[in-house]
Automatic annotation (TrEMBL):
PANTHER family on file: RAS-RELATED PROTEIN RAB
Domain of life: Bacteria
Name of the protein in question: GTP-binding protein
Source organism per UniProt: Nostoc edaphicum CCNP1411
UniProt KW Ligase keyword: no
A Pfam family matched in the record: Ras
NCBIfam families: small_GTP
Signal sequence segment: none
CDD domains: Rab
GTP-binding found in the keyword field: yes
């Protein structure tokens, strides 16, 4: 069986833990739980006639007090860069994090995940900004950990990108 390490990266409270919980356990909790350090989960998915064992590293969110520990990224085959659509600054942080990750582990496949799609009426990120990111060649997937929209698609798409490398 093929195993691939995937990291969840983004600002604090973007929904990284909720996305993993939705994928692995098919659950969503309204309670906010701060990730301390890293939480590791596993999920086996089927892609291109292969069973892929995903080792999901849910890394604590970056904020002004805590910077991402780059050593957590070692051995990563790819990552989900998670943005909270209701907080514009998380998109700016995602751009900074993507640069730091690339400087640390080189170019590996990633997906920009625009989370909290279930509450688009509260979004601060404009459609034109998403289009600009897509024009840069980034893959963008809109998700909702709460409703499950796009969650499986995000992990499947990233896994396909990893296998195609």
């Amino acid at each position: 069986m093929i195993q691939k390490k995937i990291c969840m990266i983004g600002a604090f409270a973007t929904g990284k833990t909720s996305l993993v919980a939705r994928l692995v356990h098919s659950i969503f909790s309204e309670k906010y739980h701060t990730t301390v350090g890293v939480k590791i989960d596993k999920k086996t998915i089927d892609i291109q006639d292969n069973k892929i064992n995903l080792i999901l590293w849910d890394i604590y969110g970056e904020d002004e007090f805590q910077k991402l520990q780059m050593s957590y990224l070692r051995g990563s085959a790819g990552y989900l860069l998670v943005v909270d659509g209701t907080r514009h600054n998380t998109l700016e942080q995602a751009f900074d994090l993507q640069t730091k990750v690339e400087d640390t582990i080189g170019q590996v496949p990633f997906i920009l995940v625009m989370n909290k799609w279930d509450i688009t009426d509260e979004w601060e990120i404009e459609p034109a900004e998403i289009d600009d990111v897509i024009q840069k060649g980034w893959t963008v997937i809109k998700t909702s950990a709460k409703s499950g929209i796009g969650v499986e698609e995000a992990f499947q798409t990233l896994t396909k990108k990893i296998l195609d490398c």
